[in-house]
DNA sequence: TTGAAAGCGGTACCAA
DNA sequence: TTGGTACCGCTTTCAA
């Protein structure tokens, strides 16, 4: 160990003297000959290393610009080369135990942390994934985000969050995604096909969450909404419901459209009357307003209302019970989609289709990680089925 | 315009010939003389520029390693210098209109996007802020996160999300925060004072959300929980409630502890009996379990139960009404904290203290931005008051 | 206004 | 195993 230190110190001395020699011998035109060694020497002396009479940016540190601790500082202090320091922080590298111990000790003393930005620049891997989400207030998405985050963190990747409010300039937002050199993207947001093709053109691995494209094969994790909606209708119809109404999601929600479509299809197949459909916005208020609208237009309550998500169903149930004094499920059945936490609360105990959020998020993370490792894998869709929850807001016999 | 092009082309030609000359004249030992020019030339020819018989990493691109479009490519194509390209993407830079137009045109053609990673390395500003959140499933936090995200995006900063699940290794997680050279941190998570001092030691601007430190002045945005709890107790006591119980937040939640403390203090001041306190976990189930526990230990229901947050209050109300057949508010008053969206649903209409989340998040973002611009500002606390919502779960006379 | 060149803080290759 | 060096792609002087 002490022998080792001696050798290291010798190496350092060599480095410094080489620099000094270089500095003296170098001709004005060959400005940049010994560069990395100069870096070490500069840190060693703490002095400005003037080249062509110019002060380097680094030396500005003395004038108050906060400078972070770098691997050069650690190398200096330990009397070894900078590359040795770098190697010690790389998992599979070949470093002697004594070297590693020394470096780790000095690094701790100096409070050194490797700079991920610098690493990314050379490795071309940022270990960053962008997660695009339309609105976090949806109640369904925080769960997705949370799960995605955990999954990525477990795999050593960080999540760069992009929320896309309705008013926002999506193009500008997406541009930011490129700038940050993310390794991949999970998109759980309302994106136009153009935006999606942009991902392809840039060759950035991406996975769509709960949405696909009609005319293009893309990587996606989805839950079969049509199947779910059909199950819902089948069960309600089997229990004798005849007149249906739908409070749909907004038109720009693919998931919402599919839920409506599946319900309509199945109703037609069963020879039941086409449902009255009012558009909602996925929030509590839409559910309430939707119900009022339906009752007004129908002149009475339908047998069953299929809501585009749980929160609207909850709004619908509350309005029926507390405002219109319509007993649910005795006079009116209400069903939702998603299986969010509040749907299980005793006051509601909603009949709904639970999405396997955790599995889906896990699948999305896995898929993206795989795609990053093997970018040329053929597109894959992982389709999950929703689970029917027979709650207490529907008369299922 | 055409004259301009001619000049530019001339500049390029000069560059390339200079490179060729250099390559021929350079002695083996002076490997690194003309570097940037070599870069341009390498891109121009698409050929390997061997130095000392070694192939540079860049040339590996031809063998399938995806290489991104850089400012050099744009410079090449436009026949101008790379620095000119860089300047065109810097807001206040001095560039002629014709130059800017040309660069933008070529950049669009080549699909060029500046690399934020490289920029960060030299500017020492990543435009990244870390947001630390304990658990997103809390229902209260998604709102905070969403608001923070919007605020930062508005100011050109991106959010790097860190979720800290209970089991997670917080130290390792925090280490990641340093690696990514974030410009600042918003911490809305359970952090030990040691972790917070780590922020200080590293001189990273940070703002605590809804928590402070006892023995250290830190930047924080908080809501006065003690004041809120006192208001709640005062109102309930004024309406004749005598026997109180508390379903508290978990012991490691500062906010929860303060709510409990404020309530206890005020009860003591009013000469009322000390409340029975059971610990909850901020979830629906804790509220239900807490109520059962209280009733069992008391042998009857208390007059009022103060819950550490709305979700527990909701669990409490549901269990009272549907399981124990205890009329709320007739037989039992239940109050919560936060004012989350479900607290306003008709089935609950909770009496609660609403936190001005939006204002608080906005304040936190503002504060952090200010701190990043002026790191030596003295610590500041911005304290908001909660708003009392007189809902229907308490008999307030 | 434009171009040349020196870094930012790492990684990875090579030679020893 | 270790040290030396050339980059990664950008910003920022400085000189022209």
Q: Layout of helices and strands, plus pairs?
A:
Two copies of one chain form a homodimer.
Chain A: H1 2-25, H2 35-45, H3 71-78, H4 82-88, H5 97-110, H6 116-123, E1 128-133, H7 141-154, E2 158-163, H8 170-179, E3 184-188, H9 193-201, E4 206-209, E5 220-223, H10 225-238, E6 244-248, H11 254-269, E7 276-279, H12 284-298, E8 304-307, H13 310-323, E9 333-338, E10 351-354, H14 357-373, E11 381-384, E12 387-389
Parallel strand pairs in A: 1-2, 1-3, 3-4, 4-5, 5-11, 6-7, 6-8, 8-9, 9-10
Antiparallel strand pairs in A: 10-12
Helix pairs in contact in A: 1-2, 2-3, 3-4, 3-5, 7-14, 10-11, 12-13
The structure holds a DNA duplex (16 and 16 nucleotides).
Task: Write up what this structure looks like.
Two copies of one chain form a homodimer. The first copy, chain A, has three domains: 2-114, no CATH class; 124-223 and 358-384, Response regulator (Rossmann fold, 3-Layer(aba) Sandwich); 225-355, 3-Layer(aba) Sandwich (Rossmann fold). Chain A is α/β, with parallel strands linked by helices and 397 residues long. The first copy, chain A, has 14 helices and twelve strands. The interface between A and B is large, with 67 and 67 residues. Strand 2 of chain A pairs antiparallel with strand 2 of chain B, so a sheet runs across the interface. Chain A binds a DNA duplex (16 and 16 nucleotides) through residues 11, 14-15, 31-32, 34-37, 39, 51-52, 54-58, 68, 70-72, 80-87, 89-90, 94-96, 99, 114-124.
